[in-house]
Amino acid sequence: MDSKIPVENLFSIEPVLSSSSRRSISTHSKASSGNSIREVNFSDLGSKPVRYGSHGAESETYSMSQKEINDEDARLVQINDPVKTNERFEFAGNSIRTGKYSILTFLPRNLFEQFHRVAYIYFLVIAVLNQLPQLAVFGRGASIMPLAIVLLVTAVKDAYEDYRRHRSDTIENNRLASVLVNDHFQQKKWKNIQTINLDGESNLKTRYAKQETVLKITEKEKIAGLIKCEKPNRNIYGFQANMEIDGKRVSLGPSNIILRGCELKNTAWAVGVAVYAGRETKVMLNSSGAPSKRSRLETHMNSEIIFLSLFLIALCTVVSVCAAVWLRRHRDELDYLPFYRRKDFSEAEEENYNYYGWGLEIFFTFLMSVIVFQIMIPISLYISMELVRVGQAYFMIRDTQMYDESSDSRFQCRALNINEDLGQIKYVFSDKTGTLTENKMEFQCASIWGVDYSGGKATSQDQEDGYFVEVDGKVLRPKMKVKTDPELLQIAKNGKETKDGCHVHDFFLALAACNTIVPLILDTPDPIVKLIDYQGESPDEQALVYAAASYGFMLIERTSGHVVIDIQGVRQRFNVLGLHEFDSDRKRMSVILGFPDQSVKVFVKGADTSMFSVMDRSMNINVKRITEAHLYSYSSLGLRTLVVGMRELSTSEFDDWHSAFEAASTALMGRASLLRKVASNIENNLCILGASGIEDKLQQGVPEAIESLRTAGIKVWVLTGDKQETAISIGYSSKLLTSKMTQIIINSNSMESCRKSLEDAIIMSKKLTTISGNINNTGGTLGTVLTPVALIIDGTSLVYILDSELEERLFQLACNCSVVLCCRVAPLQKAGIVSLVKKRTVDMTLAIGDGANDVSMIQMADVGVGISGQEGRQAVMASDFAMGQFRFLVTLLLVHGHWNYQRMGYMILYNFYRNAVFVLVLFWYVLFTCFTLTTAITEWSSVLYSVIYTSVPTIVVGILDKDLNRRTLLKYPQLYGAGHRQECYNKRLFWITMIDTFWQSAVAFFIPLLAYWGGTIDASSIGDLWTLAVVILVNLHLAMDVIRWNWITHVAIWGSIIATFICVIIIDAIPTLVGYWAIFEIVKTGKFWLCLLAIIVAALIPRFVVKVLYQLYTPCDVQIAREAEKFRTLSESAAVEIEMNPILDPPRR
């Protein structure tokens, strides 16, 4: 907002316009990239649940214009009198806090969030137990250190992120604005959040000041009055209010309010009265807050950790029960047994050591067992996962195939805790404008009076040869070049000499005049040459006006009362006698022009269905049929189509319309419906001039990307604030919709109507599915013949469906549909649709958008992706990942998502296996040492096992390993189904891993035990053997599963084994430690090396055999594709079809 815009003392932006330098104001909702929001805190709003279905305050918002605003349902704002305004209610201030924590809440809240990890609670309990003297197996400080380090590192990271949010808040809340105080403007802190666009469209929106206030000068005369408006609500498309000023009561509507974040264009300044502020503004009410996101794998991992905890308890129970039996059997020998001696004979008087009796000894044995076996739950796993995610993020950021040259933007990884979720996405919810499209329209072709002037023979005009006009010695050229049809261009130049020329003249005159475009004059390096830039609310209108200018009908000037159009070098002025803007009911817009010859004509453009229904029945039927055929061909090409018509008005018709229009415009109640009725009365008996075809420039690679995603088993839903016809057109051009699909359209305005529409649609979708199934069973291969269904539903219907019992029916219907398009939806409704799917399935969801209107949807989805496009950085700042183009989503999911999921799933299972092997070796040893919980493996080796001996290889493999190359994953999108089927991490794999772990631990323990049974080897020596055997075993186990070897992997795996030998040698070379020189004695014997070899062979052969048999007889898709990579060259494999497993929908919740 312009800094000169004054507001009331305590309120800021969302003002009702009261005066302006001109009557028509264009606001531009392009977001400022410098002002951004990270998270939104709604703690001040109370505990009222968010209603996603509320397009406005409630569903009544849509009918609000039909009735008077009651005092109970209204907000009363005294103009220029904040004291009186706040007499009854203290309205919200405009300061916003987006930080997540405060100084007081940081420690408890951050710890609370971190302890959502079950393992952290487990290690906290272990650390507390180790502080008790009776249970102090390890040093007290050492037991706390691992958990403390993990908590501290995470807390520092969270604190830094929140510090950045608070710093941004401070900057934004202390911006200055001009505030009218005592009839003079003063600079005060604005305390704004951000500059933001609400509906996601970066085009001009025309706003008007009322005639009753337009001439008032705030600094020269006292302005007083009362504004009665609706209470704060989320409806960004509507506003209902009235204003009492100078004894008059004036009606206010959406065209008289500027929402927070609008930027003034074509107007130097405006004076407004703020009616909503701070958390009550529509942008804040449409934000659902930023929830903490956790990886799905990490969530599932909690159940395995619970099982491992139960398994640990079982081991400890076995040890304590056995210890109880042993103590009972040897109770008479406890005083003298050398390794248990209960009596202390060193003093003259015999004393007992710390012996607490049989019962407590058993209990303490149990707790000490928990402490000794604690690494069964791998706390190092969480640190490893964070490091792996950082490495994965590095390679995603460095991926040149996700670099956007046009915006010079690289891929951004803004959330490091959900990388692996990218490999399990089932639903993609996408915005349209700026996400699927570039939001750039281009005129392609036209059908005028039954003649198709196709773009096939069109040529692009150069700036030197293109149309231009001279005005006051200056040359004006259109900013955008448009391809022109030579034949049509010649007819337009010839003027109205022929009948075809008359139709072409009227057609392009309609394109140039029937719009809300505002022409802007831009300078060029040549002072004589100026460019005309057409700015408007609709990019379609911009494309049509540029096309008209290229054919010699150049819009030069527009005011609220007239337009000036240069027609083939002749400037003509037309009086704008009336304008009916587009609405979703009529699906048309019209302008009434007064010609220089005193004639009056109405020009209308709109959707084909709405235009043909109001055409003159006496019109040539052949022209209508040919035009319809052309429209069908244009639509088949994915072009956006509009039909243009006109008729001349008699004096009496114009007078009747004028009186009705004035009455409707000044009505206090039902103004919108009255204006709609007046427009419908004048928009009839039209002569259809022709139709236009406009291409909404899709982003590069969007159709191919959507096709790849759908082949991968991902369902793509498009949620847009745009009108229905536009969304459908984009659906065709992006290949989301096809001509073979049956479309189910739901446009309802009541609960009962929605219920009936949903029931009918469910029946229809089931019939189509049944018919498809019958065809498959009788005549074809199952699954090859489908009757795809596309659901198209608008935001009005969603008002009654979301947050009601109809949600379940909508979801049931959506499950039967291949495609879902939601049109005219508010930002919070987008989040509501994502929530609807999340609540009813276990599937992963991803939301992608580029505007501030997508923030709620991005934050609600499991994974949020922001497009760093033309609509600011609000979506990027709220997202988990950010990139420059929609097509990069294919690489992100099918390549990096697959890799990340495969690596992380394997790493989790491997960490469980690695720690369990070590714990079970300790367990077997306890069984042979009278359950005293002494260990042959030194304390230092126990500590270093998870830090040095085995940690680096799993991190390196988790970052670098690739089960398939990029080309294969992109060529066969079905391979992404491995994530949907959870092939890399599931309970079956977990149990197989645990069985293998049991076998390998038994082999590693009992082979040395049997080999040295009856010998004189000491505990430290055989403990070193077990240490080295386990480390070599787990590293070779990992090496068997590595698919892509490189020098880093070799160094990590073999280097860890060498590092283990070095560490054991150093530990045994220190005289003060237990086991001095043990390793040097045992390695001299051949038995030591034979034991190592026997352990490796016996432990790994069963695993190797099972892997070979499994891959030979029941291979999965990934394994088949891997074999194709190995044994076929690229040229050979290009001709090979790989049959993939079907991608089935998982069960609903």
From TrEMBL:
Keyword Metal-binding: yes
P-type ATPase N-terminal domain ranges (all copies): 77-143
P-type ATPase C-terminal domain segment(s): 876-1115
Record's subcellular location: Membrane
Record-linked InterPro entries: ATPase_P-typ_cyto_dom_N (IPR023299), ATPase_P-typ_P_site (IPR018303), ATPase_P-typ_TM_dom_sf (IPR023298), HAD-like_sf (IPR036412), HAD_sf (IPR023214), P-type_ATPase_IV (IPR006539), P-type_ATPase_N (IPR032631), P_typ_ATPase (IPR001757)
EC number(s) stated in the UniProt entry for this protein: 7.6.2.1
MF-aspect GO terms: ATP binding; ATP hydrolysis activity; ATPase-coupled intramembrane lipid transporter activity; magnesium ion binding
Keywords: ATP-binding, Magnesium, Membrane, Metal-binding, Nucleotide-binding, Translocase, Transmembrane, Transmembrane helix
Name of the protein this chain belongs to: Phospholipid-transporting ATPase
Binding residues for ATP: 431-433, 541, 582, 605, 640, 720-722, 824, 830, 853-854
Gene Ontology, cellular component aspect: plasma membrane
Obligatory cofactor(s): Mg(2+)
Binding site for Mg(2+): 431, 433, 850, 854
Taxon lineage: Eukaryota, Viridiplantae, Streptophyta, Embryophyta, Tracheophyta
Family: Belongs to the cation transport ATPase (P-type) (TC 3.A.3) family. Type IV subfamily.
Gene name in the database record: LOC111310429
